[in-house]
């Protein structure tokens, strides 16, 4: 009963805070007393998250557990957003420094046409093409090297070193070589995604069970059959790991490369010009697009992974 | 029976790591020279034709390898530039790469320390509280799918406009990049102890704090160092990208940008090489500390 009261008090103070802030901008500057609502809200939110967690651990239905599993982090994010909104409007922080979430959302909705053109230029062209070429070539080179321990010994250290250095730095060089349009960005993405894929695929192809190899040997299997039936399935978790890491790297590479020169469309271009014009809400709306694109592609790959590697020991144990 | 091989026979060469690495490196160098010739000759031929000069292949080759602003400089040009800007210029000079590396290094290390600290604190919280695990963990993972690195330069410009300059803004970006591997690694590491050991401590009625100090923390060490290696490399990337817009303030990133503005490809490449060396040295340094800690804990190998 005690917890319910705390949660209710937190909920009420949350609504009250939002109401206050949306009606009187800079309310905390004039009447600092209203700030006391914020800790109440935080404590209430924390207790409701604790209660939800306990509920999730004790609930029997799988669907309900999954639903609560989504609810807890959603609540967490919501409270953070509310805090952000309260801070920005309550203290009337200048829009140049940090726009409120509501402003960003409005800009996102009203400028959706510009943003979608930028998205098409940066993501559908540079990121997608570069990601596919980079991952495919890394995969193919790994397959070729896998047969020869000698080449492996030579390439693995190079690959490891390349993954510890800031490859983003080649962006200006690629812009010089391939021009201002999306081809140069795709080139940066190819180079950034190549090495993680190479190193991971090599590690994955080595992760096969020697017992399985012996079985295939007794069946007199050919090399490509060993590859198809044992090595590739064993390598799948590693390959997906690289694909997921690369999906984020690719977006970063394409946007950074656009800072060095681009036609008048693209997410990196939008960010750099709107910063110059101090239109921070547009910058944040572009960041929102980037965040959505990054999370959705990562999530889609994770989903595909769980569909393809459900049999793998690392998944079954869960 | 094991076949005896002479130390320098073909077989032993085939199995030696340095030989393989050397061969790959030689092949890459040859490829580099060929690519430099191929990329630069186009530009040169156009230049010859414009000036109506007669040219032959040997002239083309020697020119392609000694251009002032080549599309792709050769390794020896980069090596000479490195030598010039590291040993022949004073360290305090703006042309010295040591000076710029120092700036990058300071924000890298600060960001790395902040990130490692934040990562460990988050991991401790996540391991000890189910609620934190359920609410925070999904966002820790989501945070890395957001291409923050791409907007990092802009954050620094804005913070700079608010008179918030120096190494701290860059360090914050490094921190954002480096906390993630530490959190993930440490959550795994702090959960690594055997159930048997945990139960033993429970029978001693050890407090969570004692369990943490005597069991969880020591058994997390291998995970900590593995993730610190990733974190320090990521931190360097963050620092360099953060320096891109701060041209005047120095740092390897600003060398990249000014090189790209003025078409100084040799300058870009030498900054890249220094960044690569810096990255490998930092990772090696973490590896050195890992070895020392392992030795003190009695773990060999």
Automatic annotation (TrEMBL), chain A:
InterPro entries: MetI-like, MetI-like_sf. GO terms for cellular component: plasma membrane. CDD domains: TM_PBP2. It is a multi-pass membrane protein. GO terms for biological process: transmembrane transport. It comes from the Bacteria. Its main location: membrane. The keyword Mitochondrion does not apply. Pfam families: BPD_transp_1 (PF00528). This is NitT/TauT family transport system permease protein. It comes from Marinomonas balearica. The lineage of its organism: Bacteria, Pseudomonadati, Pseudomonadota, Gammaproteobacteria, Oceanospirillales.
From TrEMBL, chain B:
It comes from the Bacteria. Residues 97-290 form the ABC transmembrane type-1 domain. It is a multi-pass membrane protein. Pfam families: BPD_transp_1. The chain crosses the membrane at residues 20-39, 103-127, 139-161, 167-187, 223-246, 266-289. Gene3D superfamilies: MetI-like (1.10.3720.10). InterPro entries: MetI-like, MetI-like_sf. Its main location: membrane. GO terms for biological process: transmembrane transport. GO terms for cellular component: plasma membrane. It is found in: Cell membrane. The keyword Transmembrane applies. Keywords: Cell membrane, Membrane, Transmembrane, Transmembrane helix, Transport. PANTHER family: ABC TRANSPORTER PERMEASE PROTEIN HI_0355-RELATED, ALKANE SULFONATE ABC TRANSPORTER-RELATED, MEMBRANE SUBUNIT. Belongs to the binding-protein-dependent transport system permease family. This is NitT/TauT family transport system permease protein. It comes from Marinomonas balearica.
């Amino acid at each position: 009963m005690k917890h319910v009261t705390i949660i209710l008090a937190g909920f009420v103070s949350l609504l009250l805070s939002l109401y206050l802030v949306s009606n009187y901008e800079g309310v905390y500057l004039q009447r600092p007393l209203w700030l006391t609502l914020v800790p109440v809200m935080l404590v209430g939110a924390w207790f409701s998250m604790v209660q939800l967690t306990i509920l999730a651990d004790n609930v029997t239905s799988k669907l309900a557990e999954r639903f609560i599993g989504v609810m807890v982090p959603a609540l967490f994010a919501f409270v953070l957003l509310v805090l952000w909104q309260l801070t920005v409007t309550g203290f009337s922080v200048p829009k140049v420094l940090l726009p409120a979430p509501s402003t960003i959302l409005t800009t996102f909705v009203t400028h959706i046409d510009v943003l979608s053109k930028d998205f098409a230029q940066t993501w559908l062209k540079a990121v997608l093409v570069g990601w596919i070429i980079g991952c495919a070539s890394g995969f193919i080179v790994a397959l070729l090297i896998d047969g020869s321990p000698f080449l492996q010994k030579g390439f693995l250290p190079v690959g490891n070193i390349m993954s510890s250095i800031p490859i983003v730095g080649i962006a200006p060089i690629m812009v010089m070589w391939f021009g201002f349009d999306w081809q140069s960005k795709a080139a940066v993405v190819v180079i950034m995604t190549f090495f993680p894929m190479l190193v991971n695929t090599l590690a994955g192809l080595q992760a096969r069970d020697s017992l399985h190899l012996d079985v295939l040997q007794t069946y007199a299997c050919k090399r490509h059959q060993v590859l198809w039936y044992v090595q590739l399935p064993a390598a799948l978790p590693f390959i997906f790991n690289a694909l997921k890491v690369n999906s984020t790297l690719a977006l970063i590479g394409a946007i950074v490369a656009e800072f060095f020169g681009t036609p008048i469309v693209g997410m990196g271009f939008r960010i750099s010009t709107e910063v110059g014009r101090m239109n921070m809400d547009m910058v944040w709306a572009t960041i929102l697009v980037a965040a959505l694109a990054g999370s959705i592609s990562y999530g889609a790959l994770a989903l595909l992974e769980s569909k393809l590697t459900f049999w793998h020991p690392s998944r079954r144990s869960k | 029976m094991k076949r005896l091989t002479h130390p320098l026979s073909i077989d032993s060469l085939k199995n030696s790591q340095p030989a393989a690495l050397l061969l790959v490196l030689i092949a890459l160098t040859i490829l580099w020279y060929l690519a430099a010739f191929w990329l630069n000759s186009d530009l040169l031929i156009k230049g010859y034709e414009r000036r109506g000069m007669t040219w032959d292949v040997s002239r083309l080759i020697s020119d392609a390898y000694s251009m002032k602003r080549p599309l792709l400089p050769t390794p020896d040009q980069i090596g000479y530039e490195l030598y010039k800007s590291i040993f022949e210029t004073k360290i305090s000079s703006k042309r010295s790469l040591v000076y710029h590396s120092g700036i990058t290094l300071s924000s890298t290390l600060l960001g790395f320390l902040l990130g490692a600290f934040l990562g460990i604190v988050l991991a401790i919280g996540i391991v000890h509280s189910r609620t934190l695990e359920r609410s925070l963990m999904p966002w820790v993972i989501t945070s890395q799918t957001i291409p923050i690195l791409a907007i990092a330069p802009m954050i620094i410009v804005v913070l700079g406009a608010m008179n918030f300059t120096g190494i701290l803004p860059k360090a914050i970006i490094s921190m954002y990049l480096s906390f993630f591997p530490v959190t993930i690694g440490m959550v795994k590491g702090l959960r690594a102890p055997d159930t048997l050991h945990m139960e033993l401590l429970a029978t001693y009625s050890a407090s969570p704090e004692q369990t943490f100090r005597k069991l969880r923390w020591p058994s997390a060490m291998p995970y900590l160092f593995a993730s610190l290696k990733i974190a320090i490399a990521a931190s360097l990337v963050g620092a360099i990208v953060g320096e891109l817009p701060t041209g005047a303030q120095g740092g390897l990133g600003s060398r990249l940008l000014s090189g790209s503005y003025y078409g100084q490809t040799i300058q870009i490449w030498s900054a890249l090489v220094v960044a690569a060396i810096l990255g490998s040295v930092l990772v090696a340094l973490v590896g050195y500390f890992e070895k020392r800690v392992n030795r003190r804990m009695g773990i060999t190998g």
